Amino acid sequence: MFKLFMTALIALLLPLNFTKADALSNVKSSGKLIFGLEAGYKPFEFLDENNKLVGYDIDVGSEIGKRLGGVTPTPKDTNWSTVIQSLYNGDFNLILGGMTATEERYKRVNFSYPYMDASSGLLVMKNSGIKSPSMLGGKVVSAGAGTPQINQLKLAAKEHSISYKGDIKTFDKDEVAYAAMRSGRLDAYASTLVSLLAFAQTSDDVTVIPFTSKMWKAEYTAMAFKKEDESLRSAINQIIVEMKNDGTLASLQKKWFGQSFVDLLPNEAPTW
To answer: What's the pLDDT tens digit per position in 78-128?
Structure first.
């Protein structure tokens, strides 16, 4: 009797232990592609004058939804500093929010093929006299909370043998950093070059200088997936290639950034 009971119990548990949920099938069966981002990162995602969420990532997500078989793209605003934990909590299927692929993030997620360039820049006031990262000694510097530019500022200080004034400040929203700079509380703000250039086009009193170094390699914007969600990542990688080949990705980049960066993007996911 005991053997019969154990046999029945094992048969009941086997499907639970060995059946692995398929991320792509789950998205298609739900009819939704939910992607995490943080609104306020113009031009990747931001609220327009009608309080509607728009931007490059929103358009890319919409195109992916169509090509996955008509699933509804559903952006979900979240806290960027905890975005990877929210992914693993099941709050969304992937991160599609202007994320720069980094070694530290790769420990927790797998990246898609790059869908945008993510080179860094420094926003400074035009009258600051700052022309390069080597001139930031004794200056108040900052970056977005949870972004790779925080570590880049630390590496730049070592490279140029300089010390900043106080600790590196962090901001949850770019707009708050811009306001701090205008009020004289901040000398330089590090972020992705394209996002800073987009802001600089709207303001005559700021400028953007390149933030490059031999201490970090080429940077790319990529989508992020849970390590186990390979089926969804593979399907979206193929869609990214299709969007490059048929001109869709270049068209969206010209719409939001004023030029195409497609030729700079490899068909290979960033790894370490």
So the answer is: 999 999 999 999 999 999 999 999 999 999 999 999 999 999 999 999 999
Q: How far is CA 221 from the centre of its chain?
A: 6
- pLDDT tens string 7-23: 444 444 444 433 346 99
Pick one of 3.40.50.970, 3.40.190.10, 3.40.630.30, 3.20.20.210 as the CATH number of 120-210: 3.40.190.10
What residue spans define the domains of the chain? 16-117+221-264, 120-210
Residues 235 and 233: their CA atoms lie apart, in Å, by 6
32: β partners: 72
Peptide bond into 73 cis (omega under 30): no
- Amino acid at the residue 166: G
Mean pLDDT of the chain: 91
Alpha helices in the chain (DSSP H): 2-18, 23-30, 56-67, 83-88, 103-106, 149-160, 174-182, 193-200, 230-245, 248-257
Looking at domain 16-117+221-264, its CATH class is alpha beta
